[in-house]
Amino acid sequence: MRPSVNRWPARVDVLQSASGLLLVLFIWGHMFFESSILLGHDAMYLVAKAFEGQPLLSEPHPELVSIAGGTVLMLIALHALLALRKFPATWRQYRELHGHLGRMRHWDSTLWYVQVITGFFLFFLAAAHLSQMMLQPEDIGPYASADRIWSDHYWLLYAPLLLTVHLHAAIGVYRLAMKWGPFSAATTDRWRGRARLLMVSALAFFLCLGTASLVTYMRLGAEHAPYKGERYTPSWERE
Ligand code: HEM
């Protein structure tokens, strides 16, 4: 009789990779939509209204944003739960891991450790941002977002969130490529170089895009501070 094989560890690994990939695609897409402010107030207004379903439903439905936020939050919780099983569990395990990393100086093991640290902080930072988006979905727009970022000091949340989420996403994609990529032992090293280039380029690109839009929201928020609370009227609705 063939010995029975436990397939669950492999299935859980696939689920963790798949949920991670979905989250990376979400955050990269999110950055393009959210940075529409770089194209002007009207562009950001249109994107916000599109996510409220206005083009299809004729009326804006901010609850659609809450539903999207809840779905992303559940995906993050699943991804984190599956990742937890690989985290060091005790202070002693952390000390031993530090010792090994220091002695080995192995680049990919250090990157894995960066994933553990950024993943830990992301859980709190992302939950804070998502709960705001889910509870006040109607407060998204050129003035509402800029007021929140500047007058309500949300840039203090977004600056560390920007750095941690893009480190986590870029390293995650590199690790996915190395884990599931169709390489033979002979070609792994060549592909490793390419995957690292992709990782560094994605990180640099999204950090630049995110910083540019965050600074734009801050500048707009500072200008709009005396009128805080006033909503944006798109150019085609003004007389
Ligand atoms: C459906 C869920 C989400 C919605 C509707 C949403 C929406 C937004 C909006 C409208 C902004 C502009 C600032 C504001 O209005 O406060 C923003 C900024 C930001 N969001 Fe999200 N977000 C979502 C999920 C996430 C998640 C899961 C992450 C990361 C884990 C994230 C990371 C960020 C970052 C880093 C910024 C600042 C970007 C910059 O520097 O320009 N968001 N988000």
TrEMBL record:
Highest taxon, organism lineage: Bacteria
Cofactor(s), names only, from the UniProt record: heme
Location within or outside the cell: Membrane
Keywords associated with the record: Heme, Iron, Membrane, Metal-binding, Transmembrane, Transmembrane helix
Protein name as it appears in the record: Fumarate reductase cytochrome b subunit
Entry's Gene Ontology BP terms: tricarboxylic acid cycle
Family matches, as InterPro entries: Fum_red_B_TM, SQR/QFR_C/D, SuccDH_FuR_B_TM-su
